[in-house]
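Listing S7. Sequence submitted for prediction.
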Amino acid sequence: MDHSIDPSARIHPTAVVDAPVSIGARTSIWHFCHVMAGARIGADCVLGQNCFVAATAVVGDRVKLQNNVSVYDGVILEDEVFCGPSMVFTNVDNPRSAVPRKHEYQTTRVARGATIGANATITPGVTLGAYCFVAAGAVVVKDVRAYELVVGVPAVHKGWMSRHGARLAFGADGSAVCPNTGERYRMTETGVQPVAPASDQTRSRQ
């Protein structure tokens, strides 16, 4: 992605955007946000009030950051990630004000379509799988599988979610159907997978 701001991007006058940055088409950056030089933000994103995006952070397309979300160095948000109000990313396990640890920043990756609820905390170095769902207030201390629902402190497995965000109920045959879209899923040894590629299922509903 080139360092440029697409002319269709909407940036509120109170926001601070340091050059050079990459901001995609139709992205909206609202009141009192700060985007540091070097940050990459995709197309059709929404950054609510008082959000922060660090210099090496990556924000994909169609990402929604609700109010008061900070995306620090080392955090990678793939397309269509939802970050609820005041949820927290971290990038160092044992911070000390007097001990520089920028060289210890860990990479946190949030895969496509994942949802992180309000006031949740994501500890450094974890991966959140595609379309997973982290409940409000949860504290994630280990990787979350694709389509997995986790809740609590520390976050534990509570079930499975469809791409649409509905709970999945698996039958004895290891299959489930999203009650909202009819998309089909199967349980495997490694977790939940859609029966057909997501793109194929999406086309079948059009």
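Caption to Listing S7: primary sequence and predicted structure tokens for the chain studied. The chain has two domains: 10-168, 169-206. Residues 169-206 form one domain.
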